């Protein structure tokens, strides 16, 4: 936002009335050296086609500041403009003022309304006539005046219920707060045309598009123009911030005035009624206004329910074409419909999100399952269904490390099918493969969570036992031996028995030899002894026995 020009403020304070200021400066807005340089503002300030007030308006505004003014004198001046006279009488007798009896003369209207209100009416009609262009090729004047009248009527109705002393100023402020748009259209159309194009295509609030395209809003332009016309500073400042939040401070850091708050509230509602703001935001705007202005909800609802009727009537009094308007009931209906659409959209998005999340979870599960299958396949012996040599070596290294760390014993059983080469040579490799499958089946039946079975290579198998005792390790080895001894392999018209030899090594956690290669070496040594001692047997030696045997061997 561009602040008011400090140089202009002091200069305008020297001009007592609008007529004097306009007569002195013509149609050019004064420009101080300290003013901010904004292209569109500069172009408007230097334009030769800025509107000036009609002679009657200038005379009336000048007369209302004279001390010896008479009602007859001011009525005589206004009557010089028959059209203006007729408009004032129509307004006086409209529902806006609710007079108990018909007012038929201008002098009577002036007595009833007071000089202040008459002055405001003359200014309003004159400015509308000055700015109401009929060329609508590149600009929709109907929407402009619909918004301006809506803002003016809401602002007036709020002041009427909350601070009656500001009724007339509130109406004028609402009527003129967007006049900077017209100034930009008339005097800097080449710079303002992109704003109009984006506003027409996207239908966002005008001030948002202006800020994006120009770096300022029509609030600044309107404030400059009203300042140039010599209107009260309070009104100019209210216009300069009329699109700010109700509780926002002025550029000088001061709280907004009562006039400023009425105008801000009216501008928010006007955005809804001209459909620049979605009707679904109406409830939030109502809450902001009731809390920011301290207006009871029933009072605000009454204002909104009467709004469309008053806007249409005011448009008729000002002879303005504002196109199709919307009532409060229609706005509420649109709000309900939009909220329902938003709710349905949100529910649809929630369902879609839930479906995508479920699909993602299922995909992860599929991938996990596939990865597990791949990992199992990579670590499993395809023929026997137990772990392969690679998986065995990784598991034994980890278990030996944990045995030392957790101070637990570990056992390893190595086993070998007896006379397996002869079995293959005599009955064929298919019979040999069947024997390996059956041994793998026995191992899978006897192992528990603390045991790990693997095919060590060829006809050799291995069984790792965690936290084992020497006695328990021997018993497990015997169970495996007996399980295999019961097996019979069908071959043609006979059944072939098989047996295995087992070497079991048990190592305590304090054994300095507790390493994978050492426990494998010991188990393999005991397996060799089992085979040399007749096969189909178990040789199991624990750490202490192994140490004793080593000592004897050394002697």
Which spans have pLDDT < 50 for at least 5 consecutive residues?
1-37, 551-555
Number of separate structural domains: 2
Number of helices: 25
Structural class per helix/strand content?
Answer: alpha+beta
Beta fraction of the residues?
5-15%
Counting copies of identical and different chains, the oligomeric state is single chain
Question: The biggest beta sheet, please?
Answer: 5 strands, mixed
Distance between the termini: 103 Å
CATH architecture of the largest domain: Orthogonal Bundle
Q: Overall 3D geometry? A: rod-shaped
Roughly what percent helix?
A: 55-70%
CATH superfamily of the largest domain: Hypothetical protein af1432
| CATH fold category name of the largest domain | Hypothetical protein af1432
What is the CATH C-level name of the largest domain? Mainly Alpha
